[in-house]
């Protein structure tokens, strides 16, 4: 488990990470979202001991990274897939990592096979495509069979097959009980992959909640009702404190209440329904609402 307590990192007079406290649970994929420059990579670097916090702590299984005896066997990470010696082969890179971390040499072939890189293992890292480098970086993260995995933009550069593969990999790592922490800008992909979301903006925590709660909390998530008594139902719903929009003579849309509650209000009023369903916001829509005030490097409005 990863545990951040009042974690802050200041560069000059700006906080890249600003008083972040959260616990990442094992057995789940936690998506790490935020606009460019929000502090995601910095947070991951702090967890991995690559940067020192200005204040606060980042612990893995209760211990700071620097105090972990065999770090690769506790936490595996993919931060920058291009950060490999360009003249070295993938196989040589992994073999060196295994040697220096007390990991059995047979793991090298196993993880190369697992990421579909067995055929390209002897190629120079500098000659690999971005997608292949990503796979190699993932292989390095898996090498020590760690309980905690962190991936910074793991699907960057992957083709659709590769994206689907990463999705399946994250799922199976979490299902094995591991802690999986993954940053991404691809909302549609995160909606399919993550169980839980941590959203930050300008270094600060915006949201730490299950994916389902983030979607349900969007103003664009609504309950759609078709009934021959839409006018009556609208009155009853509003009286129950539920916001209602009439969509047509026989249709209305309720927001801010679960579908069960809307159904119950109709039932208690004896109003016959012909249709009752939820229209869920996409994660993209929910994310945009959450972060609209935290976008630091957004494009100006067209024509503004
Ligand atoms: N070594 C550094 N020196 C000075 N400023 C830095 C350094 N590293 C990061 N920053 C700044 O910290 C802030 C957070 O950057 P970070 O890379 O963590 O964001 P991010 O959420 O990962 O962004 P992206 O989605 O663009 O990768 C940015 O304003 C960045 O310019």
Automatic annotation (TrEMBL):
This is ATP-binding cassette domain-containing protein. The keyword ATP-binding applies. SMART domains: AAA. Keywords: ATP-binding, Nucleotide-binding, Transport. It comes from Nonomuraea deserti. Belongs to the ABC transporter superfamily. It comes from the Bacteria. PANTHER family: ABC TRANSPORTER, ATP-BINDING PROTEIN (PTHR43335). The keyword Transferase does not apply. Residues 2-227 form the ABC transporter domain. GO terms for molecular function: ATP binding; ATP hydrolysis activity.
């Amino acid at each position: 488990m990863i545990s951040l307590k009042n974690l802050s990192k200041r560069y000059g007079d700006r906080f890249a990470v600003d008083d972040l406290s959260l616990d990442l649970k094992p057995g789940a994929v936690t998506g790490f979202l935020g606009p460019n420059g929000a502090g995601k990579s910095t947070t991951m670097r702090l967890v991995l001991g690559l940067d020192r916090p200005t204040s606060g702590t980042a612990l893995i299984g209760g211990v700071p990274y620097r105090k972990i005896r065999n770090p690769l066997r506790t936490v595996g990470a993919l931060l920058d897939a291009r950060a490999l010696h360009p003249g070295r082969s993938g196989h040589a890179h992994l073999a060196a990592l295994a040697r220096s971390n007390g990991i059995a040499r047979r793991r090298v072939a196993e993880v190369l096979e697992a990421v579909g890189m067995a055929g390209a293992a002897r190629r120079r890292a500098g000659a690999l495509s971005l997608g292949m480098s990503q796979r190699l970086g993932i292989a390095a993260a898996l090498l020590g069979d760690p309980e905690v995995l962190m991936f910074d933009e793991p699907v960057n550069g992957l083709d659709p097959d590769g994206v689907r593969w990463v999705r399946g990999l994250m799922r199976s790592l979490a299902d094995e009980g591991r802690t999986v922490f993954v940053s991404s800008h691809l909302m549609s992909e995160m909606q399919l992959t993550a169980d839980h979301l941590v959203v930050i903006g300008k270094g600060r925590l915006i949201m730490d909640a299950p994916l389902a709660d983030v979607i349900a909390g969007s103003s664009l998530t609504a309950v759609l009702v078709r009934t021959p008594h839409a006018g009556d139902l609208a009155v009853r719903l509003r009286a129950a404190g539920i916001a209602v929009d009439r969509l047509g003579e026989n249709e209305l849309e309720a927001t801010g209440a679960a579908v069960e509650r809307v159904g119950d209000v109709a039932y208690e009023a004896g109003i016959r329904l012909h249709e009752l369903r939820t229209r869920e916001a996409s994660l993209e829509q929910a994310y945009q609402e959450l972060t609209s005030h935290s976008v630091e490097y957004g494009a100006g409005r067209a024509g503004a």
